[in-house]
Amino acid sequence: xxxxxxxxxxxxxxxxxxxxxxxxxxxxxxxxxxxxxxxxxxxxxxxxxxxxxxxxxxxxxxxxxxxxxxxxxxxxxxxxxxxxxxxxxxxxxxxxxxxxxxxxxxxxxxxxxxxxxxxxxxxxxxxxxxxxxxxxxxxxxxxxxxxxxxxxxxxxxxxxxxxxxxxxxxxxxxxxxxxxxxxxxxxxxxxxxxxxxxxxxxxxxxxxxxxxxxxxxxxxxxxxxxxxxxxx
Length: 232
Known about the structure:
By secondary structure, this protein is an alpha/beta fold. It folds into two domains: 5-68, no CATH class; 72-228, Vaccinia Virus protein VP39 (Rossmann fold, 3-Layer(aba) Sandwich). It contains eight helices and seven strands. Strands 3-2-1-4-5-7-6 form a seven-stranded mixed β-sheet, sandwiched between helices. The radius of gyration is 18 Å and the shape is globular. The N and C termini lie far apart (61 Å). Residues 1-21 have low confidence and may be disordered.
């Protein structure tokens, strides 16, 4: 009988070492509300991350214990901010958070997942095929090397770099009037202050920081949202 991907535990190999470690967080009751009809695909992604994260270095050693509440739900709350029919670049896609999650939730949006590391780019190709995602292209490159794939309508990023660096990396990817959507931590107000000069240089305007997901049990999700390339 196949194991339940919602609760992958520490299984022992013939050599006595755990083959999946640590145990994956149980699926929270809120998942049905957050993911709706897409929950089966998200469950598959969660199970695949639990099985392959350690060997491919996708997540930190303790992150499976909070995979749902810190990573999957955290990524999902960005979905309503994506424009219908948009071309979206997800920079530093890594384990597919938020890129694969958003591609599952928004089949009407085209995603280019930009990831420089070979093994992680390989994971993104394999996993998007496993999930049957037809709206995903994986580009093994740094953001600075991906401008020929644009321009994009929106760009997303999560846990990639400080805001000032992200702006420099991603502004050239966007069309005139394109939008940045960055998932950031609790220090985002300080990052915004530190990025003032960079934002002016790259014509970043109408920026705001939104705190999302208060209605579901998850870590606070802070979204930096701004328009790029429109004159002041």
